[in-house]
Amino acid sequence: MEDKKKVIFSGIQPSGDLTIGNYLGALINWSALQNDYDSYYCVVDLHALTIRQEPKELRARTLKNIAIYVASGLDPEKNTLFIQSHVPAHSEAAWLLNCFCYMGELGRMTQYKDKSQKVGESVSAGLFTYPVLMAADILLYNTDLVPVGADQKQHIELARDLAIRFNNLYSPTFTIPEPYIADTGAKIMDLQEPEKKMSKSADNPNAYILILDPPEVIRKKISRAVTDDLGVVRYNEAQPGVSNLISILSTITNKKPEEIVKDYEGIGYAKFKSDVADALVAELQPVQNRVKELLEDKTYMESIYKSGAEKANYVANKTLRKMQKKLGIIPR
Questions:
Q1: pTM: predicted TM-score of the whole model, two decimal places
Q2: Which residues are the active-site residues?
Q3: pLDDT > 90: what percent of the chain?
């Protein structure tokens, strides 16, 4: 009998255009896993609402994200690709789990603490409780593994705690998820402040490169990337800017950072930056072309997210019904 594949779940918010951090740190990893796991990847549009969104832009970015998933190598036949809001069980399960989550747990979330300090009293309840929605996202699919960066580990811990709490109170219901830290893929840093992770919400547009940035923009941003006065291509903590560019090149070329350092011995930053830019342009060009094709084929795009939602709804509703039954809610 064939072993049951482990389940992987992840999603990206359509709150801004996707960067090479999303591509090199997440998307290429996801496509490498698709033959070995039962994978669910969604565009988490409900999470994006914790910040005010322009409706037209949110719709466009949601579709664009699905197109980027496919263009980055995610086969819709091998992965369940869907839009979070198309599976109402996410919102329903989030409410049920909210009733088992403590204010103190949510108040300790670093992302909430950081963001609430910036906006003060006008912080939304959604920003406070969205880790519970994230837990629902994960637990509904009996997820074994969640590919995450170090900054999201706290959210996985909460999902685990809520799953264990519910299981202990009402008998086993959820699989306890584990964070999945990939061997490949890189943590791509801000090009202007290389101590910070690259983010699509950075104020300075030179800080990030978008997956859909044109070649001339990519070259300009790499040429402006912060380095240092040493003029030597080395991979170490003392040279975060240069190390970040090495990480980018290393992930694209599948070469170890030490090999890249050796390749650029005695060669200055200008040539090194130019080569990084060339490699990025060559890597992203086919992805960009495929995204354009996909977005022009509305019927195919619709078929991807509709069939994805159909499968996701089937699985998620089974888990939701279990939760409701155990809590004493009469099935509809």
A1: 0.92
A2: 115, 197, 200
A3: 80
Give the per-residue SS3 of the chain: CCCCCCEEEEEECCCCCCEHHHHHHHHHHHHHHCCCCEEEEEECHHHHCCCCCCHHHHHHHHHHHHHHHHHCCCCCCCEEEEEHHHCCHHHHHHHHHHCCCCHHHHHCCHHHHHHHHHHHHHCCHHHHHHHHHHHHHHHCCCCCEEECCHHHHHHHHHHHHHHHHHHHHHCCCCCCCEEECCCCCCCCECCCCCCCECCCCCCCHHHCCECCCCHHHHHHHHHCCCCCCCCCCCCCCCCHHHHHHHHHHHHHHCCCHHHHHHHCCCCCHHHHHHHHHHHHHHHHHHHHHHHHHHHHCHHHHHHHHHHHHHHHHHHHHHHHHHHHHHHCCCCC
pLDDT score recorded for residue 2:
53
* In the chain, where the domains are located: 7-181+298-327, 205-292
What is the tens place of the pLDDT at every residue in 236-282?
989 999 999 999 999 999 999 999 999 999 998 999 999 999 999 99
Return the CATH number of 205-292, one of 1.10.240.10, 3.30.830.10, 3.40.50.720, 3.40.50.300.
Answer: 1.10.240.10
Confidence of residue 181 (pLDDT cuts 50, 70, 90): confident
State the pLDDT at residue 291: 97
For 7-181+298-327, give the CATH class. alpha beta
